[in-house]
Amino acid sequence: MTFRSDINGLRAYAVMLVIFYHFGFSQMSGGFLGVDVFFVISGYLMTGIILSRLNNHKFSLMAFYAARCRRIIPPLMVLCAILMLMGYFLMPPEEYRRMAEHAVSSLSFISNVVYFKQGGYFDTGSVYKWLLHTWSLSVEWQFYLLLPLALMFIARFLRQQFVWVMGIAALLSFGLVLAMVAADYHLTATYYLLPTRAWEMLVGGLVYLAPKTRLSGQGWVPPLSILALILCALIFDENIAWPGIMTLIPVMFTALILHAGVQNSRWLNHRVMQHIGKTSYSIYLWHWPLWVFWHLADWPVTFVSQVLLILLSLAAGWASYIWVENSRSWFSRKTYIALGQAAVVMLFGVTIVARAGIPSRAPAVVASIDHYSQQRFVLAKNCFVLSGITSPQCVFGDARKVNLVVLGDSHAAAMLSSIVASARTQDGVVFIAQSGCPSVPDIQRSASPDCGGFVKAAMADIERKYPNASILIINRMSFYLHGEYGSSSAPTYSFRQDGSSLAAYQQHFGAAVKQLASHHRVFIMTPVPEFGYDVIYRMSRDAMRGKVLTIQQSRAEYQSRHQDALAMLNDIAALSPNVTLLDASQGLCDSRYCYGARENVPLYRDDNHLSEVGNKSLSGVFAGMWGIIEGR
Question: What angle (nearest 5°) sits at the alpha carbon of residue 153, between those of residues 151 and 157?
Fold first, then answer.
């Protein structure tokens, strides 16, 4: 295909939207749609390359794959090699092993599947995944493998009915998206996997096949469409189901620009946009590792640092384009060189994974930190529920005398061993908890669709099976009210009649507590301190650099994060003498600071869950609770 300046300029907008989003510009909360723009462009270009050669009887499947190898693999290979070399000196073993695993999956173009299995794109832990952004390259590569085979089949056996077949395939792919979103089913899979992303690239192919219309060549199309894309990036955020019905908007405006084919638009043909577009692939590759490195170094994120990171991304992209990506580069000139280098780097990565991140190169304290992070309450291994409406209701201690029911979510699971250890041998503890499930029977959470039914069934069982037991409720309440620490996310819950306001949450949670407190003594644990970073990663990274392992936050930070939850709990407790609050800060904070580690020992196993050492910091709090239960 001939060079098109409009496509090159459109690439520049796409990559800058992604960069603004990843680098924390809150105004660009929907900048992730830049990836969708890339998908449509890829579908357009690949369809054009294949069909133009098929029609001239000059298409070679192996030549097509070889061209894609030379274009995509060398810059990715160099990035992975540099990260593994740098990681040898800077990364703790577990992070190094994980990064090498991701490098191998990226170079084999299955990283989207790996990340699908390891969690969501918008999770807070994403900043520790050096190659997270390569998921989109894997999706595109998988599409590149299948598209020429499909088009060759259509050309030979279906009388070249390309439009009909691609249109039906796009509808099936988009229909699958809508079905999965409507059912709240595997939304992480919907985000990462080819079957639910293929429609975007197929739309690009359909644009290539579309005949010219009155919109072709219209100069007003690029500015209108680009403004629409920017407006979407300003309005959308990570709480929108993506891909979903709203994804149609940026996809259609991208398709409109491609269809118009305007080559002299100042919005697209500007010299700066052309330069960024030309180097956009390399810029995209390098921007995210630079962001992760900034966090590894524990440097502050300010407006100045954000601008600096943008400039560094542009510079790294330019250098990668000149020395690696350019077709005249030694790395990209021959297919066998590109594949051979990738094989060597993959072998290096496999070796790192096989040797568990080469722990011998790390200070001894790193192994100690990892040891503490791996500890779990073994007796509760199969007691914590991830989904469904039933619980195994594990009993610890004397099953004949159940005098405490622990009801909650993963924070309850993280504290369970300390609760049990603080009890007497004649006490019995029942554990009922589901991941991501606040103790509100009529709550609705897309992330935990069974939650309301689970809590309702649990409360019924408590009344029927344990009428004389006290109840301890432990929830990560501030997360449900406000999302992850430091984010601007909307609430992660709703109620059928009352929406998702703080007043609605207090009303429904208060009603559940009141119902339980009418027959039981109810204890509610106040929120534990949360950190805006993974404590284990931070301590391990600091240890690799010989830095003092100080993990703490001020009391003011703690109060700021949890002020709504604390006010709500105090209001609820004031309404009933049977409700007692247990103060988590009593065991984890002093008058000035709240701690995530003490004497090089982590009190957390991530950014918000207590470790098995950390939950023992609350043993005094639980001892006081048991004293009240036992009338001591």
Answer: 125
